[in-house]
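> forwarded from #structure-qc
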């Protein structure tokens, strides 16, 4: 149903605006209104009215632009006329083009004929020019052949080069038969020319290798022609063959003249030089000729070459001859003329003078290649010191590598001040000296403390702790036993172990016997001070011949260095090398240290020889340094201070490493042998008992074998310290193995004591040497072994034997009243007591006493 608020006119107006302006109605009522059929006439009328208005507007506008439209129409008509005229002209052009095609064909044919005629003319002209060129080349080659026949070599070469240039510039192809013929002829002419020139060169410069002679002529006659060496040289230069011919001449000259002159003396005698007018010849059978004579011969040869050869040839020859000759002259004659010492220095100075004169002569000739000789002469000090250094190092190297084992015995003498009792001990010990003082036992090397000093210290110890000043009841029997097989009552245990109700006097009455104590404890105290005494100590040991040879080289270097620094040698050409001589000892010692391992490894006792040799060298070097220092202080300008502290330290370090290496090797072997006992567990049960016995016996035998092997090498004190150190290693391992045993039965204890006694037999190795006068006087005390001095844990080992054999009373007494605590710790003693004795009240009380006494109670 149409809304009453919207009329047909409004609807028509909305449609008109939409058609005319493309606008949309703003009224919501118009938008939502329906378009009835009754509104269509109104809409049509409105549209028609609008159309008429537009038409009237167009007519008005048409009347206003009518003049412009007439102009456009006029221009369109003119354009049409132009188009018609262009079409007529195009048709005329097409017609004329069709009429000219026959003429174009005739023109093209005529042009082709003209081009062909031009090509024919060009070919004919080129052929004529080529034939004329070939004719000229042929004529030139004919002239070359004629000039060569006349032996006019410069003209032949010039014409040949002109002909070859014409061939290269010829228009004809290289593949043309005529050109190939001419090229082959030119090549043949060149070969013929070169052959003839070479023949003339050989006639002018003739080297006879068989007769070892050289002949140079200035001019030769070939038929009616005369050829001189300058002309031939120019010809060879133009041919590009001069340098190759000079090189060939150099080789022939070297083989025939130079090499025989520079050769060392052979079976046929010495080479001598003979110079005639135009020849030089080397002959054999002359007298002895040195470096100066050789240089004079070379000067004569070079002067001959410079006189008879053109300058261009001689200069070019010198460029190839002199470098090789200089190096060979230096290697063959000059180096061998350098003396290895101050002897022959005057001859060496004369050689240097002659070399300088030879260099000046070469420079006078204008030759090149003398620089190596001039440099060698200017480096005379360095050359001499290099020869000296190489000779010294080679001598040391050969000495060590050839492995000659010649030995000798040397002595070390030293004067020291000692207490009288120490001097007496030295007399009993054969005057032994402290070997290599300052070496600690921790480094596995000889100790600095002299054995007698340690023994004297033991004499001053308070021996009251051993109970030697108290009376003992020798008739009293020890009451005690080891662990019983079965448990007994407390009363039986007390009776068996000697424990009484009154403990006050029983412990003191059960002292160990004096002969069971260590030997070092069986001395008396002497505290009286006595005046000191000066004595001379001597000690012999063995070295190889190597250190003497090395020391001789070092002393020779120092002596020659001092000699060159004297005013009498100030003008010597090798005087500046004096400083280098003082550095040779460092290099010699470095070479010794480098080659020594291979030398000493060839002997079973090589490291001990290395130790002795090195220490002997260091001792001698210190003396040499001291002597040189005294000379330097007396005359600083004519000598030089010798500084070898670093080398001495390195040599001592090498000696210590050698000694330590040998000791460590022997310790390892001894340790491996004792490892065969497997800690001495079950040492009473086979097969373990046999293994333990074998291990101990092998260890003892090895130490004795080492002592026999080193006895002839090391000094007495060093030998005792070395064997003592090895024995200390064995004892330490033995003690550790015993302490690690948690339970030791009585049979095992007895077996262990037997092992200890076997090891204790090594004590005879430490007996002092008897004086050379003969047997010991009657009434003189028996010599006391110095085992405790050289074996730090020897007393501990002896105490271990006592512990294994003693009762609880004895062990307690040794701990509380004796000096057991000086060697064993409380825990060690407690562990041994627990391993040796069964658990009981007595054992517990003994352990308690040990603990209380260790805390000062």
């Amino acid at each position: 149903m149409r809304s009453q608020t919207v009329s047909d006119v409004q609807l028509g107006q909305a449609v008109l605006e939409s058609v005319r302006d493309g606008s949309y109605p703003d009224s919501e009522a118009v938008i939502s209104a329906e378009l009835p059929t009754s509104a269509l006439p109104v809409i049509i009328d409105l549209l028609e009215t609008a159309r008429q208005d537009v038409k009237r507007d167009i007519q008005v506008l048409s009347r206003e632009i009518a003049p412009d439209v007439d102009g456009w129409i006029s221009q369109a008509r003119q354009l049409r006329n132009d188009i018609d005229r262009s079409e007529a002209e195009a048709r005329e052009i097409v017609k004329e083009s069709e009429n000219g095609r026959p003429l174009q064909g005739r023109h093209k044919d005529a042009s082709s004929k003209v081009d062909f005629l031009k090509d024919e003319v060009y070919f004919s002209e080129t052929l004529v020019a080529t034939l004329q060129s070939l004719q000229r080349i042929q004529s030139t080659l004919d002239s070359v052949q004629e000039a060569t026949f006349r032996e006019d070599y410069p003209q032949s070469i010039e014409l040949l080069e002109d002909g070859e240039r014409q061939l290269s510039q010829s228009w004809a192809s290289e593949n043309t038969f005529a050109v190939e013929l001419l090229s082959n002829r030119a090549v043949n002419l060149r070969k013929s020319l070169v052959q003839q020139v070479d023949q003339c060169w050989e006639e002018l410069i003739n080297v006879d290798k068989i007769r070892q002679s050289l002949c140079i002529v200035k001019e030769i006659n070939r038929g009616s022609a005369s050829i001189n060496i300058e002309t031939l040289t120019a010809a060879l230069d133009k041919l590009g063959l001069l340098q190759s011919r000079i090189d060939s001449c150099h080789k022939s000259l070297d083989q025939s003249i130079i090499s025989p002159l520079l050769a060392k003396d052979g079976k046929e005698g010495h080479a001598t030089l003979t110079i005639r007018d135009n020849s030089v010849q080397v002959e054999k059978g002359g007298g002895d000729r040195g470096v100066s004579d050789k240089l004079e011969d070379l000067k004569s040869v070079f002067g001959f070459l410079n006189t008879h050869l053109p300058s261009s040839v001689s200069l070019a020859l010198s460029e190839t001859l002199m470098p090789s000759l200089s190096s060979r002259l230096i290697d063959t004659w000059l180096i061998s003329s350098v003396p290895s010492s101050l002897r022959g220095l005057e001859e060496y100075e004369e050689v240097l003078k002659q070399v300088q004169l030879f260099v000046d002569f070469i420079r006078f000739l204008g030759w090149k290649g003398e620089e190596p000789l001039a440099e060698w002469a200017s480096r005379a000090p360095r050359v001499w010191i290099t020869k000296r250094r190489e000779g010294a190092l080679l001598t040391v190297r050969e000495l060590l590598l050839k492995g000659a084992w010649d030995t000798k015995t040397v002595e070390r003498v030293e004067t020291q001040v000692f207490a009288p009792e120490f001097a007496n001990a030295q007399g009993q010990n054969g005057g032994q000296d402290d070997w290599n003082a300052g070496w600690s036992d921790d480094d596995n090397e000889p100790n600095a403390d002299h054995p007698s000093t340690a023994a004297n210290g033991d004499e001053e110890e308070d021996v009251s702790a051993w109970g030697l000043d108290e009376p003992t009841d020798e008739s009293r029997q020890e009451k005690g036993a080891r662990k019983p097989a079965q448990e007994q009552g407390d009363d039986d245990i007390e009776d068996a172990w000697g424990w009484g109700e009154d403990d006050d006097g029983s412990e003191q009455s059960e002292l160990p016997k004096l002969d069971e104590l260590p030997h070092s404890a069986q001395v008396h105290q002497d505290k009286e001070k006595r005046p000191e005494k000066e004595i001379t100590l001597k000690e012999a040991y063995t070295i190889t011949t190597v250190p003497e040879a090395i020391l001789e080289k070092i002393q020779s270097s120092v002596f020659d260095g001092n000699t060159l620094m004297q005013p009498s040698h100030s003008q010597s050409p090798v005087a500046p090398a004096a400083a280098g001589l003082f550095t040779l000892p460092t290099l010699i010692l470095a070479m010794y240290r480098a080659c020594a391992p291979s030398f000493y490894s060839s002997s079973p006792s090589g490291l001990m020889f290395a130790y002795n040799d090195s220490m002997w060298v260091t001792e001698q070097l210190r003396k040499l340094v001291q002597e040189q220092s005294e000379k330097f202080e007396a005359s600083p300008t004519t000598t030089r201070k010798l500084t070898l502290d670093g080398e001495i330290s390195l040599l001592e370090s090498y000696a210590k490493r050698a000694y330590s290496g040998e000791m460590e090797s022997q310790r390892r072997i001894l340790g491996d042998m004792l490892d065969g006992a497997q800690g001495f567990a079950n040492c009473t049960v086979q097969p373990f008992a046999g293994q333990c016995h074998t291990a101990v016996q092998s260890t003892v035998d090895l130490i004795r074998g080492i002592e026999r092997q080193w006895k002839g090498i090391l000094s007495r004190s060093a030998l005792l310290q070395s064997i003592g150190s090895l024995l200390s290693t064995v004892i330490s391992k033995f003690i550790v193995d015993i302490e690690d045993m948690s339970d030791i039965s009585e049979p095992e204890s007895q077996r262990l004591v037997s092992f200890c006694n076997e090891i204790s037999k090594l004590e005879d190795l430490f007996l002092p040497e008897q004086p050379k006068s003969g047997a010991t006087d009657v009434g003189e005390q028996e010599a006391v072994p110095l085992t405790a001095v050289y074996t730090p844990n020897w007393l501990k080992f002896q105490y271990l034997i006592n512990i294994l054999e003693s009762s609880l009373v004895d062990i307690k007494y040794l701990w509380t009243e004796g000096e057991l605590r000086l060697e064993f710790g409380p825990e060690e003693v407690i562990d041994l007591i627990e391993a040796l004795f069964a658990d009981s009240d007595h054992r517990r009380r003994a352990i308690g006493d040990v603990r209380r006494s260790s805390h000062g109670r």
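QC bot note: The longest strand covers residues 407-418. DSSP finds 30 helices and eight strands in the chain.
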